[in-house]
Design brief:
2 copies of one chain form a homodimer. By secondary structure, chain A is α+β, with helices and mostly antiparallel strands. Chain A has 18 helices and 28 strands. The interface between A and B is large, with 36 and 35 residues.
Chain lengths: 613, 613
């Protein structure tokens, strides 16, 4: 997508409005998701980017015959504003006071005049059902008619990328700790307990987990475009025949998986539901499209709406997965330590060649690529220098990237996909002199990260409760950050996965769900000062048992990420003795785990970088 | 109630079973509440104590033709077992694994045999509507018929105490910061926003708050038995005419309050609903009786069920209330400090006369009684020595109380009702040598109390999130306590009031509601070791603004309780430098606030008791 050609956008909007008029549509709605409620979407489904030029992950667009609005969240305010400049789009900064949500906007602006017909239309395949239900209800309240199966983008999109097609591969059951057949049996037990006869799955990581398959259809996400329908007799898997190899066919047969073709327009799964869906159907409205949900509702006598049973089972890693995860996280940490060493060496050498953000990313990506079992990145490395790091999801545009200076902070957020793990880690590195405020902020973030990292908690404690442990040192200083503190992480799957979430309390967001043994979660507080700098320290933790006694069951975290927290940026005046003890203890572990894998010069550096305060 | 005569209980059960048989009732249910969903109940409504001898606050009883079961919670396991001994009652320890709740028990044990009729009956006036709805639904699922308006206790209870009747008094609007008419206007605005035309209130503290009246019908709770029905035109107050004085009549007229008689059997409010209830009615099913709820449902075209709007407004104290609260809490704290001084002096003098738990309580109660504006206790002082303190709601039975020894801990939980405040405070006092474990536990409780006390938090943070700050030092040591960390406190009203609650996460319990500015809440972690000792440190905190900046709004707590935390029981090895700084800072405040009110000898003691570590 070339989003500098904003004239292209104007032409597309003109064509779209002509199609709207032809179809009697007053308001057309487009979201950035695909039929699988994905966060990251393959090029074929990037309709919102096609029509607006905005490449953010979390977008909703509303078009009228005169105007165009685009909603996105705080991570993308700055990049979206750049991408939309020169177009007619009005950027709606979701979350800011006074900015209405899409439903609020509909209520305030889209009520038809008396006696006038007015239609809100969208392509229900690319709107998740949870949102779709809200849009439908809001439209009804406003007196708008709804057409939820109108695709006006495909006819305009002449050079639309084809559906991706990459052969799927089989995950070794020994590596997963469980065969697909065993997982399917567990999920059938969940269905039975809920009184369901059919479970519909559209979320790609749920389907990959359940089938022990992996694909390559979405950049950096090892998933294959697919649907699954689980009955008492079989798991029906809808997948492109071009992606199936003989071993996969054999794996399917051995695990009770029946293969069906995947079709762009969801037709094959719709036909299946028409035939087999006359039973109690279980589905998760946040994990299927509005179109699939509507189809199921048409035929099923009863919909059992709840979180996919795969989601919680997938989040609790098996013993085999944990063994593999520990091994790869250690190697990934070694790469990060080597990277920090090189960056520090560069910063200390005024004669070293200039280094840009993209050079730094390439250096780290190269170190990861050397790890046996490396299969690619888990997301595009974020190398954010100086004020760029104040944008939580900054991505340098080639040619516009910053050149590192020997002062201030370089924030690097990165991760890899390996044969036996998906990793994620952020460190913020001092490249030279820092202001007192920078040091204070860095120290508070480190203290928050370590307080959460070393937390002990009663079984049943949820992520919103743990969240305050990381934020308290910031809050005491009147500081906060706008993103969650921790997200779940998949096993050779999505770098962001639910259901758990360490974040401020919001019912239904995952922060109200208990943190359970075996869950893998990030711990990543930060401080962002617009136009100045950004700091984030992210390690990944595994929930493990701590104690079981007359007071109950207690859990704690085992840290899997071992990379120094830059002592050059620590001001111990902002730590209490507990914070200092936690930092020293963490650094002792980093040295013990990482030193054996380093060259002598690197080892000497690490010893100093992890010295006790 | 003489609950040593357990033969009396047997006779009552025989008579009750005869009445059940006569009325065709298979299962009769009795709870410990009154028609106002009160926690503390006047003698007239203590039906559960009459029929069982058990005086706990939180009881449910189920009687069959052969057996009798009594449910209560962990605070009362020990006292209930004592009170029920020698009766046929089976004690159901609610909350223990394997102990079914009443609805679970009904499902497991009360399903009638095929073709048999079986009736569950209760007096819906003395069951709250929330529970009543659950019992009715469960009975339906079991195939039981329900009779929710069968009072079988009154006919048996020959010497039943009459309804209490004490004159009500008027709270000065200057002290409350708001007239009754102003409060009524605010609540009418809440009703309008919710589309309600009639609000039904049965909870006594809600009604007292709204009318700026106080009564004396429930021991230590300055409330008058009453109902209120708020319409667009008037506040209809149902109250015993014997309680009304001329000034109250004038106050009512000035504030748009229309007086109606209160009747034991709820008849007057039922007749009112029959006449005026044909409109959308707002009520809180946890705050009205099953009978009142059923009556409203019969006539209202629509029930708007939600928390009473009075509850949140009452919890956020006005500036005038806060001024008064600060003043009385200081005087109350002075009494507590003088008490600790006397106890410490007694403990240091081997020749001093023996002192029992009840002597200690009398000493403290006497000191409180000297405070100008003292109106009584806010609950019966809990003076728990040694192992007695392991029972969180211990009440010494006269004649069976413990005599203090010059070793171990004395836990004292107490509070007063004053003209301008309701107080609550707990301190645990070392009377002599302590084991290392006692010191460790005491230190962890102090650390937890102080971490919560000094918390800073983002606006919107709820009580379950703050709860972990108090528990974390205990959890790290594999210890926990079974009660909440903090409850709300009324203004010259209930010592326990909602809606906020600092406690483990449970949706709907109040721990999921944000802690708001102006709320008054306890901070009372503890550690209880059965048959050994109990420790609790409780101070009361007021939520106040902390900062407002680009990161948002932050709140913190202002501590209102000033009494030393016993340094003789502190082991600094279990504190980090932050904990020590917080303790020293708190003690410096205690000295500064309290010293001016002490005699020289007391002042010298306090200086030592609050010395920096």
């Amino acid at each position: 997508m070339d989003h500098t050609k904003n004239n292209g956008i104007a032409g597309r909007l003109t064509a779209l409005r002509a199609a709207m008029k032809e179809n009697g549509v007053s308001w057309y709605l487009i979201t950035s998701t695909d039929p699988h409620a994905s966060e990251y979407v393959c090029a074929h489904f990037q309709c919102s980017a096609f029509i607006s030029g905005c490449t953010s992950d979390n977008v909703r667009i509303l078009i009228s015959d005169e105007k165009a609005w685009l909603w996105t969240d705080s991570r993308y305010y700055i990049s979206a504003a750049k991408e939309l400049s020169g177009t007619e789009y009005i950027l709606m900064k979701e979350g800011l006071p006074g900015v209405p949500s899409v439903p609020q906007f509909l209520k305030e602006n889209c009520v038809p005049a008396d006696g006038c017909a007015s239609v809100l239309a969208f392509d229900g395949r690319c709107v998740d059902a949870g949102r779709g239900l809200i849009y439908r209800k809001t439209a009804e309240q406003c007196g708008l008619s709804v057409n939820g199966s109108l695709d006006l983008i495909s006819p305009l999109w002449e050079d639309r990328p084809a559906l991706p097609s990459h052969p799927v591969r089989i995950m070794n059951a020994d590596l997963c700790g469980s065969t697909a057949a065993e997982k399917i049996a567990d999920i059938r037990a969940d269905m039975k307990a809920a009184g369901a006869k059919l479970l519909l799955l559209a979320r790609l990581d749920d389907i990959m987990w359940l089938t022990n398959l992996r694909g390559g259809d979405v950049d950096m996400n090892p998933v294959a475009l697919s649907y699954a329908a689980l009955t008492e007799d079989a798991l029906h898997l809808f997948i492109q025949p071009s992606e199936i190899t003989d071993p996969v066919r054999k794996h399917a047969a051995e695990n009770g998986i029946v293969l069906h073709p995947y079709e762009d327009n969801e037709d094959s799964i719709f036909r299946f539901i028409e035939k087999e869906g006359h039973v109690p159907v279980m589905l998760d409205s946040s994990a299927v499209s509005d179109a699939l949900f509507s189809c199921a509702r048409e035929y099923a006598p009863k919909l059992i709406r709840r979180m996919n049973p795969t989601t919680v089972r997938k989040a609790k890693k098996t013993a085999a997965e944990i063994t593999s995860i520990r091994r790869y996280y250690l190697q990934d940490s070694v790469a990060v330590c080597k990277f920090i060493y090189r960056i520090k060496k560069w910063a200390a050498d005024p004669d070293a060649a200039p280094m840009t953000e993209l050079d730094a990313a390439a250096l780290l990506d190269g170190l990861r690529a050397e790890i046996p079992g490396f299969q690619g990145l888990s997301f595009a490395t974020i190398p954010a220098y100086g004020a760029n790091a104040a944008m939580a999801h900054y991505a340098p545009v080639p040619g516009e990237e910053s050149t590192l200076q020997r002062e201030g902070f370089l924030l690097v957020d990165s991760g890899g996909q390996y044969e036996g793990a998906t990793t994620d880690v952020t460190r913020t590195i001092a490249l030279g002199p820092l202001s007192d405020e920078m040091k204070r902020d860095f120290t508070l973030v480190a203290a928050g990260n370590l307080r959460l990292l070393t937390a002990v908690f009663k079984a049943g404690t949820n992520g919103s409760q743990l969240d305050v442990l990381a934020r308290e040192p910031l809050w005491v200083n009147g500081i906060d950050f706008g993103h969650g503190t921790g997200h779940g992480i998949g096993f050779v799957l999505s770098v962001h996965e639910g259901p758990q979430r360490i974040a401020p309390f919001r019912p239904g967001s995952g922060s109200d769900l208990p943190m359970e043994s075996g869950m893998l979660t990030s711990d990543e507080p930060g401080i962002y000062r617009e136009n100045e700098y950004g700091i984030r320290t992210e390690s990944i933790v595994l929930t493990v048992p701590y104690a079981e006694n007359e007071f109950g069951s207690f859990l704690t975290f085992e840290c899997l990420t071992f990379a120094p927290i830059d002592l050059a940026a620590i001001d111990p005046d902002y730590m209490d003795s507990g914070d200092i003890a936690r930092l020293n203890e963490y650094h002792a572990q980093v040295y013990e785990k990482i030193a054996p894998y380093l060259e002598e010069e690197e080892r000497v550096w690490l010893a100093d970088a992890t010295r006790p305060l």
